[in-house]
From TrEMBL:
Record-annotated Peptidase M20 dimerisation domain positions: 206-306
EC number in record: 3.5.1.16
Keyword Membrane: no
UniProt entry tagged with the keyword Zinc: yes
Taxonomy of the source species: Bacteria, Bacillati, Bacillota, Clostridia, Eubacteriales
Enzyme class, broadest EC rank: hydrolase
Family: Belongs to the peptidase M20A family.
Keywords, ordered alphabetically: Cobalt, Hydrolase, Metal-binding, Zinc
Protein name: Acetylornithine deacetylase
Cofactor(s) needed for function: Zn(2+); Co(2+)
Amino acid sequence: MKMNWTKSVDENQEMLWEILSCLISFETVSPPGRNSDGVQAYIYNFLSELGAELEQWEMYSGDSLLVGVIPGKRRKEAKSLILNGHVDVAVVGDTSNWTHPPFELTEENGFLYGRGTADMKGAMACALYSVWLLKKYGVKLGGDLQIQSVIGEEAGEAGTRAILERGYKADFGICMDTSNLEIQGQGGVITAWITVKSKDVFHDAVRRNLIHPEGGIFGASAIEKMQDVIQSLRELEEIWYETKSYSGFERGVNTINPAVIEGGRNAAFVADECKLWVTVHFYPNESYESVIKEVEEHLQKLANKDPWFRENPIQFKWGGKSMIEERGEIFPSAEIEKDSEAVRLLCSVHEVCLSKKANVNMNPSVTDVGWLVHGGIPSVLYGPGCPEEAHSVDECVEMQQLLDYSAILLEFMEKWCI
Ligand SMILES: [Zn+2]
């Protein structure tokens, strides 16, 4: 018998609100993170009772990764699906402007308020609710359904990357992060620490000998040398502006931002070290690996014509697995394969459920969909919640949108996992 998921989702909705209310009550703010054991235990138990095969392992003390697989009845031949979501939420900070308590689910005029309702515990609740409905109505999918519950996303932590490196895969992935039910790809981001370091250390009094031709000492201030690096990065940014573009993005969003600078010892020294923290944005059809190469090659041209840089090479530390632990992050880009079977199916399920065409476009921000795609899993970003609500004061989500999303997930998994 063909299920009418829209109807079943609607009839059982109390369960969805109960799940979301539990998820919101865990104060999983990141940074600082290290506070997700409670919410992960809740999800573990929830999925365990529904017959999932579960694996949970620690990424940081107090933050673990969780994967639950609902085994399909023909798991070897049938297609599998990943639903990926993060259970950490953005910082709340000063709560005086909140008119609703951030960690208590509150309803008002068809909207649900609380930190994480839009980004993205609402979506995670829909995924868990979907699994619960499958069980309730005795519906067994053909292929495996894999729920990935990730931590640290708000702090650039590479939880999804770690899950994929552990060997989890599927035939298609949906990153359920905030996209207002638009089907999206994304550009990528990588951070880097660029270091200029002098082999020699000089007293401030020697500066005269370094900067004037008759001074006779070969040396330089690392801070002044970093000025050349910054200038050179600005040139590269301009070259990218002139030479690159991608449909769906404004021109010039592929920026190189000199975000933080640290350097020098104190006023009695010529600075012998200077570090620059940059954030590099790139288009969906570029990889962070190719961007690394371009930046390094461009700065190498600067180094080639400068004798000091030849003696004191520019150093790079690219990316990182956590903004908290190592002040570095990567979110790979994700192109959308519009004509793939999975994307076409998702579009058609969306259209049938909502009686309107799905928007297929590019997210201006970054999410874990990049890691799914980087890991070789064709994937899209597709989740409930308005991007403007993510991280906002009085964050909220429309209740009807969560019901719609649950029904779409169920329809999609039934048609895909066959
Ligand atoms: Zn998010």
